[in-house]
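Q: Got a minute? One more chain.
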Amino acid sequence: MALLVGRGKYLLQEEIGRGISGITYKAINQTNNQVVVIKTFASVSSQEDEASDIRKKFLYEARRLLECSHPNIIPYREFFSEDGVPYIVMNYIPGKTLDKIVLPNSPLPEATAIKYIQQVGNALKVVHDHGFLHRDVKPQNLILCEDTQQVVLIDFGIAREFSRGLVQTHTSLVSDGYAPIEQYLPKAERTQATDIYGLAATLYTLVTAQIPISATLRDHLILNTPQQIRPELSDKISQAIMKGMALELEERPSSVDEWLALLPETSGNGITELPITPEPKTETESIDSNSLVLDSEEMVEVVEQTSVKQPDKPNQLWKIIAIGLLIFLGFDYIILKMSDRFKDAPSQPNVTEQR
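A: Always. Here it is, folded:
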């Protein structure tokens, strides 16, 4: 597809995703040739008045979300409305969403998963401080940047304002497995505990490579603990996940900080085992052209071959002396042979005496 929007400023190139509330496109900023992401609202209503109201809320909340600046939140650039259709422009972030890395059967190491969740938790704290709930925290909405180990929270399409202590309307847009029970209710209190459930459920998936059962089914189906699925997981992480996923809102921690404090501490960066494209080398670093196209096993072989070819200095010196000695003896032998040949040669007759 090739469609110009924003009065010709942006060229939509291809659709890269569809979410609960919108369609996302990869686009080019015609003024500077930069790649961006543009999201437009996908209305779930056929009623013109209701659709118009949804568009207004979409733009209003986009305006508010521009305030939520954080390294782990996708940067919003601008928003506009054209022919009655709202658009939000965001930075393009090359990388994979965590669901594509983990599912169907590649759970992350415990320390790695915790480090990623801590990043997302820090992003959510900024969102909450601005009076919003994300309401759709899940692995599909977390991008692991291609050149770093940074996780970025995306898709604020169903984000809503919340006021502590007030009963508010929850939309019917939910992600099964990651949405708490209150999101299925027409009227319920909006609190940080809603996002805490999604955050804990996301961690559940990262360490088990399984999507938790829907909150609506948990009254008659038992949710296996992470440790039941992967016995090598620590008690602490398993208990923290189950605490964050408590069915009753009152039984969950009341803030992201409170829930993050339940997680086990990790040493180091906790992210070395993830198969991610390595960072490009700087100009000052030496680059082995062979290693750029080889896998890890082949790179080991290259190193071993290189070390064998390096000369041993003492042995090399003896070789030079030996070769020089052989050359000297060879010349001496040739001189002696030539001397013997001249001695054995017959003498020439004296021409004067014959006459």
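A: The first helix runs from residue 48 to 65.
Q: Perfect, thanks.
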